[in-house]
Design goal:
This protein has three helices and two strands. By secondary structure, it is an alpha+beta fold. Helix 1 packs antiparallel against helix 2. It has one domain. The chain has a two-stranded antiparallel ribbon with strand order 1-2.
Protein backbone atom coordinates (compact mmCIF):
# COMPACT_ATOMS: atom_id res chain seq x y z
CA UNK A 1 0.00 0.00 0.00
CA UNK A 2 2.92 2.30 0.78
CA UNK A 3 4.44 2.01 -2.70
CA UNK A 4 1.03 2.46 -4.35
CA UNK A 5 0.43 5.76 -2.55
CA UNK A 6 3.92 7.02 -3.38
CA UNK A 7 3.52 6.05 -7.03
CA UNK A 8 0.11 7.74 -7.11
CA UNK A 9 1.68 10.92 -5.67
CA UNK A 10 4.28 10.97 -8.44
CA UNK A 11 1.60 10.36 -11.08
CA UNK A 12 -0.48 13.26 -9.75
CA UNK A 13 2.53 15.58 -10.00
CA UNK A 14 3.43 14.42 -13.50
CA UNK A 15 -0.16 14.67 -14.76
CA UNK A 16 -0.61 18.16 -13.33
CA UNK A 17 2.71 19.33 -14.77
CA UNK A 18 1.93 17.87 -18.18
CA UNK A 19 -1.55 19.46 -18.19
CA UNK A 20 -0.11 22.83 -17.16
CA UNK A 21 2.54 22.70 -19.88
CA UNK A 22 0.15 21.43 -22.57
CA UNK A 23 -2.32 24.24 -21.95
CA UNK A 24 0.23 27.03 -22.25
CA UNK A 25 2.18 27.15 -18.95
CA UNK A 26 0.18 30.06 -17.54
CA UNK A 27 2.33 31.64 -14.81
CA UNK A 28 -0.61 33.60 -13.37
CA UNK A 29 -3.76 32.45 -11.61
CA UNK A 30 -6.07 29.88 -13.19
CA UNK A 31 -8.38 31.42 -15.79
CA UNK A 32 -11.71 30.16 -17.08
CA UNK A 33 -12.08 32.71 -19.87
CA UNK A 34 -9.63 34.39 -22.22
CA UNK A 35 -9.82 37.91 -23.65
CA UNK A 36 -9.84 37.98 -27.47
CA UNK A 37 -9.54 41.17 -29.50
CA UNK A 38 -11.85 41.21 -32.50
CA UNK A 39 -12.06 43.63 -35.39
CA UNK A 40 -15.45 44.51 -36.83
CA UNK A 41 -15.17 43.98 -40.60
CA UNK A 42 -17.63 46.75 -41.49
CA UNK A 43 -16.69 49.61 -39.17
CA UNK A 44 -13.09 48.64 -38.42
CA UNK A 45 -13.68 49.15 -34.69
CA UNK A 46 -11.71 46.89 -32.39
CA UNK A 47 -13.70 45.14 -29.69
CA UNK A 48 -13.00 42.71 -26.88
CA UNK A 49 -14.83 39.42 -26.41
CA UNK A 50 -14.23 36.63 -23.94
CA UNK A 51 -13.98 32.98 -24.94
CA UNK A 52 -14.51 30.24 -22.38
CA UNK A 53 -11.22 28.38 -21.99
CA UNK A 54 -9.55 26.68 -19.04
CA UNK A 55 -5.96 27.79 -18.42
CA UNK A 56 -4.51 26.23 -15.27
CA UNK A 57 -2.14 28.53 -13.40
CA UNK A 58 0.34 28.27 -10.57
CA UNK A 59 -2.49 27.75 -8.07
CA UNK A 60 -3.37 24.58 -10.03
CA UNK A 61 0.23 23.40 -9.64
CA UNK A 62 0.17 24.28 -5.93
CA UNK A 63 -3.01 22.28 -5.37
CA UNK A 64 -1.49 19.31 -7.22
CA UNK A 65 1.66 19.58 -5.12
CA UNK A 66 -0.44 19.67 -1.94
CA UNK A 67 -2.42 16.62 -3.04
CA UNK A 68 0.74 14.72 -3.92
CA UNK A 69 2.29 15.67 -0.57
CA UNK A 70 -0.82 14.43 1.21
CA UNK A 71 -0.64 11.10 -0.63
CA UNK A 72 3.08 10.71 0.02
CA UNK A 73 2.65 11.70 3.67
CA UNK A 74 -0.15 9.18 4.12
CA UNK A 75 2.14 6.46 2.80
CA UNK A 76 4.39 6.90 5.86
CA UNK A 77 1.62 5.58 8.11
CA UNK A 78 1.94 2.14 6.52
CA UNK A 79 4.68 -0.18 7.71
CA UNK A 80 6.38 -2.97 5.87
CA UNK A 81 4.99 -6.37 6.85
CA UNK A 82 7.24 -8.20 9.30
CA UNK A 83 8.51 -11.62 8.31
CA UNK A 84 7.76 -14.59 10.54
CA UNK A 85 10.63 -16.24 12.40
CA UNK A 86 10.09 -19.43 10.41
CA UNK A 87 10.63 -17.58 7.15
CA UNK A 88 13.88 -16.05 8.44
CA UNK A 89 15.39 -19.44 9.30
CA UNK A 90 15.17 -20.84 5.76
Amino acid sequence: MKKILQLLAVLVLLAAGATWLATGANRGWTKTSVMVRTLDPVTGIEGITYDKKFLPGVDFLGAALGGAALLAGTSFFFRKPKLNQQQNNH
